[in-house]
Design goal:
The complex is a heterodimer of chains A (450) and B (166).
Chain A (H helix, E strand, L loop, with lengths): L18 H18 L4 H15 L4 H7 L2 H17 L4 H12 L4 H18 L2 H18 L5 H15 L7 H10 L3 H26 L8 H8 L3 H4 L3 H21 L6 H17 L4 H13 L3 H19 L2 H13 L3 H18 L2 H14 L1 H4 L1 H4 L1 H14 L8 H12 L6 H27 L2
Helix pairs in contact in A: 1-2, 1-16, 2-16, 3-16, 4-13, 4-14, 5-6, 5-7, 6-7, 6-8, 6-10, 7-8, 7-23, 8-10, 8-23, 9-19, 9-22, 10-24, 13-14, 16-19, 17-19, 18-19, 18-22, 18-24, 19-22, 22-24
Chain B lengths: L2 H4 L13 H11 L3 E5 L5 E6 H8 L2 H4 L14 H11 L4 H4 L7 E2 L4 H11 L3 E4 L6 E5 L1 H26 L1
Helix pairs in contact in B: 3-5
The chains are: A mainly alpha (450), B alpha+beta (166).
Chain lengths: 450, 166
């Protein structure tokens, strides 16, 4: 049986249950497990999607239609590229170099490392960025006898804010960009200025709260100045290959948009190209071994979580529930673009701080799409997407569980014996997040509503 | 044949309140690389090894999961490493010991005991299954000695049989 479109597929749900109620219950149950972290998020999403299919809300053809393979390809491709690239040691190199550049001055180091994190996060996945920067940060702070907390805190913020600037920087952007078809440069034009303004604000804030009070001994500084960053660069050839491929992929993102090449295609092809450059001179056996290693760096848990989530949300969307919510939202705002977008901005920020921002964004996309007709077409609602991206990315700073990068930093800190307490983080991060949303609000007003 | 046969019955041990400095002295004086840690009643609490002590000299960022994979860029750090060692010398063994060390019980088979030892790459404490009382340790040396002796016995037996039939 082949089913083309959702509307044609009307199947009796088993036991005669109402599809909308069934789907809502399954979605809510899955979200409860995801939010409370009682169950691994990937398992919760896949079980939810499976339940919808077995109960007849979706069939498998429809479920597959619901998966945004552009997002999946983009994630897998970028993960493979970074997974190979990190073996060159370039991330340690840059971090150590940035420490030497400021002559191991802790105050400037705090700022420098935040900017390094933000820049890497804009071009690469946030989780990967912090996985590479945090161990070096812990080493540097240990050597300088500094409390690592301010550094880790600023890096969480920098990774989420930096990631906001591009299509590939932050998971919410990837999903939004793929669903709506925004280009890499559209993200840079529309969200880049906000990123820069907010980063500058945060830098001043971190300096006032922590940086200006930081001090270390001359001896510790001298010690750090004897580091040899060049030694951290373990494989220069690999670095050159990776940079070339990364350049091609970025070019693919930018140029491909007008030429029918999706970002997922660029990323996945780039990953294949980098693997080719890595393996071509080896025996078939060794080639297999190397490819296995490269694929092993992909976070499959995240990939399957996305797939399960897409199917789950599609099932609920299919029953018409999300359109209903969209209509309710427009009733509240009276269909006014400014009110609607600012509601989305603040609403997504607060929601994303409480729950993982990925399921939230995945659910919001069909809701926002459903409002297009009553608000004057897809072009008219463009600001709503930027409001969602701003809210979700910045909201990711609101708590320790709000974004995957935060969870990663917290687990590193714990392993190094510097546990970050949930409440301690929340009491500073949540208000600070609200201030960044206020800045985003002002930016939004000037950029989209004037 | 069980682990009990190949073990050293009265191994050197350390108490949980002894310091790392004390343990290093045991390692040096007795020429061993690992000792079981036992409480006052002879119950096994964990294992302390030379490798654990060395690991604690490294920066945490290099020994944690997904941590730094190379420290090549750290130049001239003998002094730093020595200072870190100085810091842990007065710590009690209980702080650093491996509480989840691999161990065998007196009725573990010889094959399994050897497998465990190969896998954990250190000595194998042998305990009473129910009470966790330390009964002895198997070391690579004690096991090889025992195996060697058994092999010689088998050869002698064969030789004796050969003489009989001749």
């Amino acid at each position: 049986m082949s089913v083309g479109h959702g509307e044609e597929y009307v199947r009796e749900v088993v036991f005669g249950w109402d599809p909308m109620i069934t789907a809502t219950v399954v979605l809510c149950l899955a979200y409860v497990f995801i939010i409370t972290e009682r169950l691994n998020r990937c398992v919760a999403a896949l079980l939810g999607a499976g339940t919808l299919m077995i109960l007849g809300v979706l069939n498998q053809d429809l479920a597959i239609e619901g998966v945004d393979f552009n997002t999946i390809f983009l994630l897998i491709g970028m993960m493979i590229i970074v997974g190979i690239m990190k073996d060159s040691g370039v991330f340690q190199y840059v971090a150590i170099l940035s420490a030497k550049m400021v002559r191991a001055n802790p105050r400037l180091l705090l700022i420098n490392l935040a900017f390094v994190t933000a820049i890497f996060s804009a071009l690469l996945d946030n989780v990967t960025t912090v996985m590479l920067i945090v161990p070096v940060t812990l080493l540097l702070t240990e050597q300088l006898k500094l409390n690592p907390y301010p550094f880790l805190f600023s890096q969480i913020f920098a990774s989420n804010v930096g990631g906001m600037a591009t299509l590939v920087g932050d998971p919410p952007n990837i999903i939004i960009g793929s669903a709506v078809g925004f280009s890499f440069m559209e993200f840079v034009y529309n969200l880049g200025p906000a990123t820069v303004v907010i980063m500058i604000f945060l830098t001043i804030f971190f300096d006032l709260v922590w940086g200006r009070k930081m001090d270390t001994t001359l001896k510790a500084k001298a010690h750090l100045l004897r580091y040899k960053p060049a030694e951290a660069l373990k494989d220069k050839e690999l670095l050159i290959k990776s940079l070339i491929v990364l350049g091609i992929v970025l070019f693919g993102f930018i140029w491909g948009h007008g030429h029918g090449i999706e970002p997922g295609t660029s990323a996945l092809t780039g990953a294949a190209l980098l693997m080719l450059l890595q393996i071509y001179k080896f025996s078939p056996e060794k080639q297999t071994h190397k490819v296995h290693a490269a694929l092993g760096t992909v976070e499959w848990e995240t990939i399957f979580f996305f797939m399960g989530l897409f199917m789950l949300v599609y099932g609920v969307e299919h029953t018409g529930l999300l359109a209903l919510i969209g209509n309710k939202m427009l009733e509240i705002t009276g269909g006014d673009l400014a009110y609607t977008s600012l509601l989305i901005l603040w609403g997504s920020a607060i929601f994303s701080a409480i729950v993982d921002n990925i399921p939230f964004v995945a659910t919001m996309i069909p809701i926002i799409e459903s409002t297009a007709d009553s608000m004057g077409g897809p072009e008219a609602i463009e600001p709503l997407w930027w409001a969602l991206a701003l809210g979700a990315c910045l909201g990711g700073n609101g708590s320790l569980i709000a974004a995957s990068a935060n969870v990663m930093v917290a687990s590193f800190a714990e392993r190094a014996g510097h546990r970050i307490a949930f409440i301690k983080f929340l009491t500073l991060a949540f208000p600070l997040m609200l201030v960044t949303i206020a800045i985003a609000h002002a930016y939004f007003w000037f950029a989209f509503l004037q | 044949m069980t682990a009990a046969r190949a073990m050293i019955k009265e191994p050197f041990t350390a108490g949980p309140e002894q310091t790392i400095g004390d343990v290093i002295k045991i390692f040096t004086d007795k020429k061993v690389r690992a000792v079981p840690v036992v409480d006052g009643n002879g119950m096994l609490l964990g294992l302390i090894t030379l490798r654990i002590i060395l690991k604690n000299v490294l920066p945490i960022s290099a020994t944690m999961e997904h941590g730094l994979e190379s420290l090549d860029f750290l130049a001239d750090t003998t002094e730093g490493a020595a200072k870190k060692l100085g810091k842990i010398l007065d710590k009690p063994v209980a702080d650093l010991m491996d509480e989840n060390c691999v161990c065998a019980s007196t009725d573990t088979s010889k094959w399994e005991a050897i497998r465990l030892m190969v896998k954990s790459n250190t000595i194998l404490p042998v305990i009473d299954k129910k009470t966790r009382e330390l009964k002895g340790v198997m070391t690579a040396q004690s096991t090889l000695t025992e195996l060697d002796q058994t092999m010689k016995e088998i050869q002698a037996e064969k030789a004796a049989q050969g003489e009989d039939t001749a």
